[in-house]
Design a protein that fits this description.
By secondary structure, this protein is of the alpha/beta class. Helix content is 38%, strand content 22%. It is globular. 41% of the residues are buried.
């Protein structure tokens, strides 16, 4: 039996996609890259932005032909959009076999078995006629691979950012137990992972059994064979001296931090309910760079939030210039039904949003190009994740002529850049 998983959204969604596949794989399904060859498709949706939700719904619509071709096939729709739109999805797309929202992921194996167990039994009896050699196996999605694995340490969010739908579709913060997190990390390392990325909506707010997130990093750093630790996505409020000290003293923690600012306007940050101001972002970035001189910082930014003025936008550009992020994820504001800001007047014209986004991207792209160019001539350590492609400790993607199987830490001399990727050659002398 063949399984195809489609995931929209962030790294949390990628990790969730792996969990959504697990009970089906336990039922004997094998992952395949082509949906046309699949007996079951799991569509893991995102609803943080309208575009991601629209893409998922469009794909569900296109899958009707796939389903009609062989009605015994199974289509599961899960994730954040499924949480927000579950009954509507089931009514609009009656050929969907199961809709499971993001809040139910802990109970997902039981839900799937109760709803589809008999179908899977029947499918297993008849599926043997299909040629097992006909389908190509799935390529890992995102950065999750046997060598760079995800470990989800928490779900949900206790914040109430006025533009964000996450608390509504994922619920309040739920921390996975310390021993469970450590056991999963050790298991993935034993299976070949050299890098673990800890995941959570506000990952650095994790606090379980009296152990806070910085201490978790220190303890993770004692796992034998674990070369690198990353974490996504931290909240600026919890970027404090304890976290910076843990990043500094724990050898395996990578020199990289995602610090989502959303805006440089203190007025807008208050309306967004972000619980910090621009001065605190500047201070945190400065303290981080004093402690870890070669740290690379990334950020998220929204333009066109309701009532954003030219002056507000200029403050955002000013903050970006001071932060100098190596990577920036920029977005035009779009209202999400069920959020506080959806009740505000979306009064920044579309053309103004486009123009501001273009200016912001021009600045952010220049900072990225500068960061990439600064690496030319350097010899960097790269975890080879795909045979000639991987990342540095500080998060830069690197490509070089493949010479050995993936899974090793290799030295690469950077010779140039292309499309936000460093390019180089193996340096055997380093």
């Amino acid at each position: 039996m063949r399984l195809h998983v489609v995931t929209f959204g962030c790294q949390m969604s990628v990790a969730d996609g792996e969990e959504l596949a697990s009970p089906l794989k336990g039922r004997g399904f094998t992952a395949v890259a082509e949906p046309d060859t699949a007996d079951a498709i799991v569509l893991n949706t995102c609803t943080v932005r309208q575009h991601a939700e629209d893409k998922a719904l469009s794909l569900i619509g296109r899958l009707r032909e796939w389903k009609d071709a062989r009605p015994e096939r199974v289509l599961i729709v899960a994730g954040c959009a499924a949480e927000r739109l579950g009954p509507w999805i089931q009514k609009r797309f009656p050929y969907v076999d199961l809709v499971v929202g993001a809040k139910s992921i802990e109970d997902y194996p039981k839900i799937v078995e109760e709803a589809l167990g008999a179908r899977f039994d029947a499918m297993a009896e008849t599926r043997s006629a299909f040629s097992e050699e006909a389908a190509k196996p799935d390529k890992p999605t995102g950065w999750s691979s046997p060598f760079s694995a995800f470990v989800t340490i928490m779900r949900g969010c206790n914040y109430s950012c006025s533009y964000c739908i996450v608390p509504a579709v994922r619920g309040r913060e739920l921390y996975r137990p310390y021993e469970t997190v450590m056991a999963e990390a050790r298991t993935k390392v034993a299976l070949g992972a050299k890098e673990i990325t800890l995941l959570g909506q506000t990952v650095n707010s994790w606090n379980e059994s009296g152990i806070r997130f910085p201490e978790l990093l220190r303890r993770m750093g004692t796992i034998e064979g674990l070369e690198r630790i990353r974490f996504e996505s931290p909240h600026p409020y919890y970027v404090n001296d304890d976290l910076i000290e843990a990043m500094t003293t724990t050898k395996s923690v990578c020199e990289q931090l995602h610090l989502p600012i959303q805006s440089g306007s203190d007025r807008l940050l208050k309306i967004m309910r972000r619980n910090y101001d621009s001065a605190s972002i500047i201070d945190k970035t400065a303290r981080l760079r004093r402690a870890i001189p070669f740290v690379e910082v990334a950020t998220d930014i929204i333009v066109g939030f309701p009532s954003e003025t030219d002056e507000d936008f200029e403050r955002t550009l000013d903050l970006v210039r001071l932060m100098k992020p190596s990577w920036s994820y920029t977005f035009k504001y779009s209202p999400r039904e069920g959020t506080e800001s959806a009740g505000m007047e979306d009064n920044v014209p579309a053309g103004v949003k486009e123009a501001r986004l273009s200016r912001l991207n021009e600045l952010c792209d220049k900072l990225t190009e500068d960061a990439l160019s600064a690496r030319v001539g350097q010899v960097v350590s790269v975890l080879d994740e795909e045979g000639g492609f991987g990342r540095t400790r500080d998060g830069f993607k690197v490509s070089w002529p493949e010479s050995e199987p993936a899974g090793k830490l290799v030295k690469v001399r950077i010779t140039g850049t292309s499309k936000r990727v460093l390019r180089g050659e193996r340096d055997e002398r380093a």
